[in-house]
Amino acid sequence: MTITHILHHRYLSSLNDFFKAFPMLSDGICRKGYWVVALMLFISGCAAQPITQSPYLSLESMPAFAVQGKPHIDPASDRYAIDDVDILALDDRMKEILDKSVIHIEDQKQRLESLLDVLYDNGLFNRTDEKYQTRTAIEAFTSGTGNCLSFSNTFVAMSRYVRLNARFQDVPTLPNWDQQGNIIFLNRHISVAVELYENVEYEIDFYFLDQLLNQREKYNITTRNQLLNLNERLTSTILPDKQAFAQYYNNKGSELLANGNMPDAFRYFVKAIKTDPRLSFIWSNLGAIYSQNNQIVAAEKAYKQSIFLDPYEFTAMSNLAKLYTRQGRIAEADAMNKKVRIFRNKNPYNHFAKGIDAFENHRYDESVAHFKRAIERKKDEHQFYFALAHAYVKLKNIKKAEDNIKKAIIYSPDKTTQDYYSQKWKILTGNPPS
Questions:
Q1: Residues 146-202 pLDDT 10s
Q2: Which terminus, N or C, of the chain has the lesser number of Cβ atoms within 10 Å?
C-alpha cells in the first residue's frame, strides 16, 4: 500500500532540525526519548467522531487473520499463541550484584543512588539506543541496549528487588512520528517513578540521566544527589504493570510488522489485547494490521473498538477515515477529516509544531503567531515560552524575548532546565536574564 504522508514527513523533519539546534530539549527535557509505544498511522492528522458500537468487543468476535497458503490465525484459539513473558524477571547475576552492592543500605535515598551507580557501572548509561528493540529487564541489562521501555523494565525490576517502590510512568511528549517502509509509527515515552518517603517522589528517566551523566562538566554534576530531581511533571501518569506488559507485547508486534512478519505481529497484538483489553491504541494497531492484510471489515471493527475505548484515540480515527476513503465512503471520510481540522486547532502541540516549522524556514513573525496560539491553549508549557523567546530574538525584540525566557524558567520542571535556559539566554544575548 502506498501511504500519502508528506505533511507529517515535513513536520518530523522540522522538529528534528529544531531539536538539533537545541539538543538539551531533545535529549533531556522536551522529548525525553520517545521510543515506547509504536502506533501505526495510515493517514496524516487526527479526528474525532462518535462511534456506535457494542459496549465491549472481544477478541472472540474478531475474524481469523488470513495467511496465504497457510492455516489462518484465529485470535481466540491459535495453537502458536505467544507465551507469557516476565519482563521484570532478574537472573542470578543481577541478584548477586544487588545483594553485594545495594540491598543492605538502610537509607532509601542512598539505596536509590547506589542502584544508579550499579546501572552506570554496568554500562546502561553508555548504551546503544535501539528504538525498535524492546527488551526484558534481563535482556536490557545483559546487552546494554534497548529503548526506554527496556531500561524502565530493568530499573523497575531491580528497584523492587532492593525494596524500593518503583512504578512505570507514562510521560507525555510532543507527537513524534517515524517511518519504516510503508508504515508510520507514532512514538511515546515511559520513565520510572520511585516513591521514597511520603509525598517525596523521584523520576528516573534514562534519557535525561544519560544526558547528565555523560556531560558532567557541562551541567556541573559533582554528586549523585544532583542526578535525582523531584518529579514535578504533574501531567505524567502512573502506568499499571499490566499496561507495561501489554505495551511490551505491542512493541514486539510493531517491530515484527516493520520487518514484514505479519502473522507473528498479529499474534503479539492479540497477546497485548489479552493482557490489557482496555488499551485503545492496541486495538488501533490490530485494525491497522487487518487493514494492511485487506481484511477491511475486521479493520473497521477494531478501529471502532479503539475509539469506543477512548473517544480521543485520534490515530484510530485517522486510520478509519483512510479506510472509508479506500471504500469510497467519501461522506463519512469527509466528516472525520472535518473533525481533524477542529482537533488540530485545539491541540497546542500542533501549533507548536507549526511554529517550529516556520522558525526553521526563517518565517519568524509566523512562528511567533503559532507559539502564541500554543501558549493560549497550554499556559504552563515551558518549551513554548523558550521557543517564543528565541523567535523574538531573531526579530530583535529583546524585551519580549526576555519576558518569555523568564516565563520559561518559571514553568521549568527542575533547576537543571532553569539553568539551561539561563545559559542559553546568555549565549543568545550576551547577558543573563535580569
A1: 888 999 999 999 999 999 999 998 876 655 666 666 676 777 788 888 988 777 778
A2: C
- Which tens digit of pLDDT belongs to each residue from 347-391? 787 788 889 889 989 999 999 999 999 999 888 888 899 999 999
- Closest of 167, 177, 155 to residue 5, by C-alpha: 177
Cβ 425 vs Cβ 433: under 8 Å: yes
Highest mean pLDDT among 72-81, 351-360, 424-433: 72-81
84-93, 105-114, 366-375 — most confident range: 84-93
Q: Which CATH number applies to 92-242?
A: 3.10.620
Q: Which residue has the cell 532492593?
A: 162
**CA atoms of 109 and 164, how far apart (whole Å):** 9
For residues 381 and 374, the answer to whether their CB atoms sit within 8 Å is yes
Separation of alpha carbons 107 and 163, rounded Å: 11
Mean pLDDT (the chain) is: 78
Interatomic CA distance for residues 287 and 319, integer angstroms: 8
Mean pLDDT of 227-235: 45
